[in-house]
Amino acid sequence: MTVRPGTIAAHVDAERLWRRHMELAQHGATPNGGVDRQALSAEEIAARRTIVAWGEAIGLSASNDDAGNLFLRLAGTAPDLPPVMIGSHIDSQPTGGKFDGAFGVLAALESVEAIVASGARPRRPIDVVAWMNEEGSRFAPGMMGSAAFTGARKLADVLAVRDAAGVSVSDALAAVLAAEPQLPGRPLGTLVAAFVEAHIEQGPILEAEKRTIGVVTGIQGKRTFRVTVTGEENHAGTSPRSARRDALVSAVAMVHALQAAMWDAADVVRFTIGRFEVTPNAPSVVPARVVFSIDLRHPDTATLRDLGDRIPGLCAAAAGRCVVEVRELLHDPPLAFPAAIRDRIRAAAQDLGITWMDIPSGAGHDARYLHYHGPTGMIFIPCKDGLSHHEAESATRDDIAAGARVLAETAFGLSVAE
């Protein structure tokens, strides 16, 4: 069956897609218009139920796996072939927005609904997927579901992680799967013909360049660390400076040293200390313990390696009378998506008359792990002022629809390719 370019995209319903974004955002809605829908929470359970209902109404078959990844399948004429996967995630930061992750899942759902409406039949199955715990806000690190699916992390290691309240992934995931008893399970690590993830850019470039579609060239590398500084509690009024082992003073010295070492005139290095915990955190007690996070990113493999390798020594040199432990949590090198997938995305945008540009991703995505499992690509759309991980995160109805149209054409093309 020959399908002319633009045929599938013509059946994307912009109003339906926008309405679904607004409806999904009610699960975990915050008073300031954002979303607090953290991984494996009651809010995410409700959101999954809504997505399953929408998918089943189209005729998709829902399933899940042992990592809590959710799948909705559009059958192909050759059902035994590895599927084309499209999707993203629906968990959010505690003060997240309506579009981060959710756009990729809902654009994928709209894509398969457009395929069904067009009367075209994919050769390969097409799976809409919502990966478990991309954000890593409740359970760290993020991208757990895609990492477990692809074998980048052992499921047992994922299940053992606990949140700040002491709840394990294993226990929280059991509640999610118990809420979906009607869904059949599927194995981890199945073959994938291709994966395409649509996402808001989470940066200002597309908006500034007045381009609607970003053809993502790859993802910059990332290293994360947890630094634990141990001193000694003492009385704030009676302990002299010479007797103190102040963990906070030492930690601040480390932060200054790290910030200076990571500074670059070209402003390419991305260095962030986003979490800082002081114990006992009492006004009249010398702090005995500080734990802080480091998020380091760079597009060059050697630079990322060299900067990250300097972190333990810099912390030790600034520790003073305290003891410091630096633990690396994650080291993901930079990657480039295959040219064939990028070419398909560009061609779809050009055929539809939608402006596009090549763009790297500064943020991490589930596509990172899928990249090593099968041919993978990403589609970006603009977000207002480049703002994301924020309740004011916003994207326009037209851009969302344009992204879904490009995704629909790309996914269908991949599904009928030899």
TrEMBL record:
Protein name listed in UniProt: Zn-dependent hydrolase
Names of the cofactor(s): Zn(2+)
Top-level division of the source organism's lineage: Bacteria
Binding site for Zn(2+) 2: 100, 135, 389
Residues reported to bind Zn(2+) 1: 89, 100, 199
Domain Peptidase M20 dimerisation: 218-314
Keywords: Hydrolase, Metal-binding, Zinc
GO terms, molecular function: hydrolase activity, acting on carbon-nitrogen (but not peptide) bonds, in linear amidines; metal ion binding
InterPro entries assigned: Amidase_Cbmase, Bact_exopeptidase_dim_dom, Peptidase_M20, Peptidase_M20_dimer
Keyword Cell division: no
Organism ancestry: Bacteria, Pseudomonadati, Pseudomonadota, Alphaproteobacteria, Hyphomicrobiales
Cofactor annotation comment: Binds 2 Zn(2+) ions per subunit.
Family per record: Belongs to the peptidase M20 family.
Short name of any one Pfam family annotated for the protein: Peptidase_M20
Keyword Glycosyltransferase among UniProt keywords: no
